User: Fold this.
Amino acid sequence: MNRFLCLTCALAVLFLSACGGSKSTSETSPGAPAAAPTGAATAEQVAEQMRGNVKCPATASTQRPAGAPVDDVTGVRPGISWNEAANFVMCDNPLMVVAENTSRGYNINTFGQHIRQGFDGTFAQPRVVKTGQQIMQDMEQQEMQRGENAYIAPLQPGQSRYFVSTMGLPGQEQVLSVAREEYYVDAKQPTVDSVKQALIAKYGNPTRENDGASTYLWWEYDPSGTQITQASPLAGQCSINVSPDAATNLSTACGVTVGALIQASPANPGLAHSLAVNSQNGAQDMAVLKSTQDTLQNGDNARKANELNDASKNASKPTL
Assistant:
């Protein structure tokens, strides 16, 4: 089975690590500001500056084939383009902004080409101008939190976040996986069962589920689109970690795989505190990775051949 685990990798075994980010580069792309703004600003002002050319409601240029497993998360699904995915993400909320994540990536040789390998979708935060003393105080507080191994929640109630991994030739990057997490607003939390039923209504009966302190559900398919059963040799082999912070694990033996995690409220286990959903398509994603690597390799081989040809005609003769 051709598999690749994401954390650090090589092409038959490619990895994707966690966290970080910088801005998208195309001025006309959604989420790409014309220039880096400065000065104090509200969250709404920051969002307006960063969101760029967003068109809501978002639409995809290609539709999922009839009869294929449902594989989108708020419209974002494997195979759609970077710009389409960014547009879908920002249509989630007027405060949602996207930024290229350069600290997570598939460990392939890009031969000097800049390939956008993923982006984060987060709520815009107010831009605060701080004094040197305030900056030092913030650094000290962060250092203290690290020293105490303090947990810092990635979201506030009512917020959501995304990580979308992408791959392709420069300017042609497409989605490989999409993960979204949402924290529900206090006093407006849905029941765990209602969230579970909403997931089943969208994705169908799950391949597997695990109900406990947290509720996990997985929808797993082989590359032909056939749902994997417990009697299948692939049973349990196509599961994915749901968190946006998790590594991506791809296999050519797996098709569409969707995972969901409903975490209960600490105050009332019948209410949902948060929902995370992740989607990918192992065989399709592996084909995109291989095609990208092969094209880059062929381009570099052609460059070397041209340089050798030019050298045979134009190179200086050695002085002996």
Remarks:
- The two ends are 55 Å apart (CA to CA).
- The beta strands are 3-5, 96-100, 118-123, 160-167, 174-183, 208-211, 214-220, 249-251, 256-264, 272-281.
